[in-house]
Amino acid sequence: MITKVYTIKPSNTVKDLLNILKTNRIGGVPVVDDRDQLLGMVSDGDVLRYLSPTPMGIAGLVYIIEVGEMEDVLREKLNTPVKEIMTKRNLIYVSPTEEFETTIRLLSKHRLKKLPVVNGAGRVVGVLSRGDIINNIYEQIIDN
């Protein structure tokens, strides 16, 4: 489990989010309130889906955006609050004492890359990634 958790507030912008993702070389972060309570998750995939051009034209198959216009659209979208693109429904998380098998099942079943770890008070205390699980399997089974 990663215990140095990078988080973002819902009022921060997509630009702020991109800075956190790039600077820390991560693919997503929990969205938290001022008390570090989990409000949602936001990933690099959420950003790409939000920033991708909207199809226009015949049957939505033609992209009618010139390069300069595309840059303007992207710059404008960078000021959008994270709360507009974060996943906030059906949040999946685990407790710090969750069974290893349950964690694997959740990551696999829901095709998650990251799983927030939330304590009894509702605060985000860690993040589990697919890599953490792979490393644990290797250390416990293969490298033992």
Q: Tell me the distance between the termini.
A: 20 Å
**Percentage of residues in DSSP E strands:** 15-25%
Total E-strand runs? 4
Which stretches are poorly predicted, pLDDT < 50 over at least 5 residues?
Answer: none
Name the shape in a single word.
Answer: globular
What proportion of the residues is helical, as a percent range?
Answer: 25-40%
Mean pLDDT: 87
Rg (C-alpha, Å): 18 Å
Strand order in the sheet with the most strands: 1-2
Order of helices and strands: HEEHHHEEH
Secondary-structure-derived class: alpha+beta
Molecular structure report:
- The longest helix is centred in the last third of the chain and has 13 residues.
- The chain is globular and about 55 Å long.
- A two-stranded antiparallel ribbon has the order 1-2.
- A hairpin with a 5-residue loop joins strand 3 and strand 4.
- The protein has 144 residues and is of the alpha+beta class.
- The protein is built from five helices and four strands; from the N terminus they run αββαααββα.
List the helices and strands and how they pair.
Elements: H1 14-24, E1 28-32, E2 38-43, H2 44-51, H3 67-77, H4 100-109, E3 114-118, E4 124-129, H5 130-142
Summarize the structure.
With 144 residues, the chain is an alpha+beta fold. It has 5 helices and 4 strands; from the N terminus they run αββαααββα.
Descriptive keywords:
single chain; 144 residues; alpha+beta; two-stranded antiparallel sheet; two-stranded antiparallel ribbon; 5 helices
